[in-house]
Specification:
Layout lengths: L4 H18 L13 E2 L7 E2 L11 H31 L2 H8 L3 H26 L7 H17 L7 H10 L6 H30 L8 H22 L2 H21 L3 H6 L2 H20 L1 H28 L6 H14 L10 H14 L3 H33 L3
């Protein structure tokens, strides 16, 4: 069959126009626009849906995972607390909580919030050696990091990394530099907890009515941890660097095998070595400034004293006598020995506080459990509420 050249040219032009109409225009909203095709017969066919699917993006899913973990962890925390109440007196504990003095409870809660603020100031002073930070933005950033640390399961273990990321993001601070400052602050915080708790124990050692061996072992363990960390960071830094590089090399190979290009780039040996050097450089800069170290340790210790005030206030609100010496001993010691993978160490801290009050102040178990629960309301749940508000303000006032 012979095809006329004019007819072939006309058909070719029609095909080109049809292909052009199938191609979506580039621009704002082009991804969400519906495609339309207009055939030669004049009818218009629309696609069944937008070009972008309804499936959540990986970033959306990755943001949802921490929220799911937090909700699940908090649910488990409430379950553990219910078991704790049932084992320590049940309704008697709950009735005692309903009789708490509101004014004294608020004062104890303010002491708990003050403790976190003092720890935030401690970190700010450590960061000042590398970069000037401060103001409302820093306070909100620190509290937002503390919020994640408090509500996520295992948050107490990963708290340094979380806080370092939170305070470095709003400022021109490298993550490694912020993490180094957080490391110094955490070690001094741990040493301050041992010091304050040991001081309280020395004041009531003769009046203690129960077994405080568990707490003494916990304090000794904290001293060992501080000493080992200081030894590795100063005397065996080369060993520490080799271990970090070796572990990261395994992660780099796995990321390359599974095609995780972003993770592979961050775990590249040269990038890791540069980050490790930056970390230790900042660590040395902070540690070499003796006056700054003393200031950081002072604010960390004041934070523990504020938590002790919150514990004494919780006892006063319930008309339970908690001596100042016992509060100074139990508040830091319970944070060291009352470990739990649940958010905020829930369950472990309550048991530690109850045991400590029974052993050092002779408080009955049910009354001690009520004081422990109210103390946690003042030192943990109130702080979580303040942290949540700060997180929302940070996102609102400094949205990027």
């Amino acid at each position: 069959m012979v095809v006329d050249d004019d007819d072939a040219s006309h058909q070719l032009k029609g095909d080109i126009r049809l292909a052009a109409k199938k191609r979506p225009e580039r621009g704002a909203g082009a991804d969400d626009a519906e495609t339309s095709v207009e055939p030669d017969d004049g009818t218009e066919l629309k696609s069944v849906g937008p070009l972008r699917g309804d499936v959540d993006s990986p970033r959306t899913r990755s943001r949802a995972r921490p929220a799911v973990r937090a909700v699940a962890g908090l649910a488990l925390a409430f379950l553990v607390l219910a078991v704790f109440v049932s084992l320590t007196g049940g309704w008697a504990v709950l009735r005692a909580l309903t009789r708490a003095d509101p004014g004294v409870t608020v004062a104890a809660a303010l002491a708990g919030v003050l403790a976190i603020s003092l720890w935030g100031e401690s970190l700010r002073r450590a960061l000042q050696r590398a970069h000037p930070v401060g103001g409302l933005r820093y306070r909100l950033a620190y509290l937002s990091g503390d919020f994640a640390r408090q509500v996520l399961p295992m948050g107490r273990l990963s708290g340094s990394a979380i806080i370092g990321y939170a305070v470095s993001r709003p400022f021109d601070v490298q993550y490694e530099e912020a993490l180094a400052a957080v490391t110094v602050t955490d070690l001094l915080n741990l040493l301050s907890a041992v010091t304050v708790s040991a001081f309280g124990l020395s004041l009531l050692f003769e009046s203690a009515t129960g077994d405080v061996l568990t707490f003494i072992v916990g304090l000794a363990g904290a001293v060992v941890v501080v000493g080992a960390a200081a030894y590795l960071a100063t005397r065996r830094r080369d060993l520490l660097e080799r271990v970090v590089v070796a572990v990261v090399a395994v992660g780099h190979r796995l990321a390359a095998r599974f095609g995780a290009t972003t993770l592979e780039r961050h775990l590249h040996p040269h990038s890791v070595e540069r980050r490790v050097e930056s970390y230790f450089r900042t660590l040395d800069a902070v540690a070499d400034d003796r006056r700054r170290v003393a200031s950081v340790a002072c604010f960390a210790a004041l934070g523990w004293v504020s938590f002790a005030a919150a514990l004494a206030g919780a006892g006063a609100a319930l008309d339970v006598s908690v001596p100042v010496a016992a509060a100074l001993f139990v508040a830091p010691a319970s944070g060291l020995v009352g470990w739990s993978p649940l958010p905020g160490g829930s369950g472990g801290v309550e048991v530690a506080v109850t045991t400590g009050l029974v052993a050092t102040a002779g408080v009955p178990v049910s009354a001690a459990a009520a004081v422990a629960l109210l103390y946690r309301v003042c030192s943990y749940w109130s702080v979580v509420c303040v942290d949540a508000v700060a997180t929302g303000l940070l996102a609102t006032l400094y949205a990027e």
